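The protein record passed on below.

***
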Amino acid sequence: MNPQNQTIPRVSARPIIPQNPNDYRYLLPATTGYLLDVAYGPYRLTVAPQTMRQARGLASAAIRSHGMPEPVSFITSTDDAPALLMVLHTAMLSRDALLTLSFAPCDGTPLPVVTGPQDARTYSYRRSQETMNRSQLDVFTMRGRLVQAGGAR
């Protein structure tokens, strides 16, 4: 009861963040924050609104690649290190992204760079002997969440 003897009606609180961690509304801010953290570390909350929107777009593309991929492509320059880091990590988070590297405008067919099964096994063996650093563990964890969310749809 309040001081005027009136009953205050109860309002059911609706959670702002969904309870399911695989929900898109939960994954989008988490993945956006991850990409900003990769590029800016503890200063990720100080970025310009445009950079925040771009990180959100990259995060959305990575998440959707595991469920309903959309035809979208991103371009950045190696002169813009934060953008490059976010694009590279978006590719690592994505189900099957293709990266194209060009040094000048070119109309030709890109030269494929692929490794064979033996090299893949060698890489896997080498990785098994190393301790993952935080960056590798973070991308592995985030990608696992996106893969799980894609299968949950």
